[in-house]
């Protein structure tokens, strides 16, 4: 995910880090770029979990999604603040 969308994710990481330091100044740009990043992250989440939603492993799908988002939060700790007003 980070390699395939390197430019967008690197750009968002820079804005994300600046947002952590000064939320008010970077809030608008953070939300705009964050929407794009979250959209890509959700696509990868769907790809990861789509095969486990059906069949004998369906009960593990939500745990897998939680683990995926936990890894995303390690790289983007404020990802949950995208779009929050």
Can you tag this structure with a few keywords?
85 residues, mainly alpha
Account of the 3D structure:
By secondary structure, the protein is an all-alpha fold. It has one domain. The chain has helices at 6-21, 23-50, 61-75. The mean pLDDT is 88.
Task: Kindly provide the radius of gyration, computed on alpha-carbon positions and rounded to a whole number of angstroms.
Answer: 14 Å
Count of beta strands: 0
Q: Catalogue the unreliable spans.
A: none
Number of helices, where a helix is a run of at least 4 consecutive DSSP H or I residues: 3
Taking the alpha carbons of the first and last residues, their distance comes to 27 Å
Return the structural class.
mainly alpha
Q: Approximately what portion of the residues adopt beta-strand conformation?
A: under 5%
The overall pLDDT average reads 88
Largest sheet: none
The level of helicity is 55-70%
Query: How would you describe the shape?
Result: elongated
* Oligomer classification: single chain
The arrangement of helices and strands along the chain is HHH
Set down the secondary structure blueprint.
Layout (H helix, E strand, L loop, with lengths): L5 H16 L1 H28 L10 H15 L10
Helix pairs in contact: 1-2, 2-3
């Amino acid at each position: 995910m980070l390699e395939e969308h390197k430019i967008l994710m690197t750009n968002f990481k820079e804005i994300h880090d600046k947002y952590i330091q000064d939320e008010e100044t970077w809030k608008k740009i953070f939300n705009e770029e964050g929407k794009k990043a979250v959209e890509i992250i959700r696509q990868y989440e769907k790809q990861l979990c789509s095969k486990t939603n059906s069949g004998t492993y369906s009960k593990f799908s939500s745990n897998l999604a939680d683990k995926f988002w936990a890894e995303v939060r390690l790289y983007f700790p404020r990802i949950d603040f995208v779009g929050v007003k």
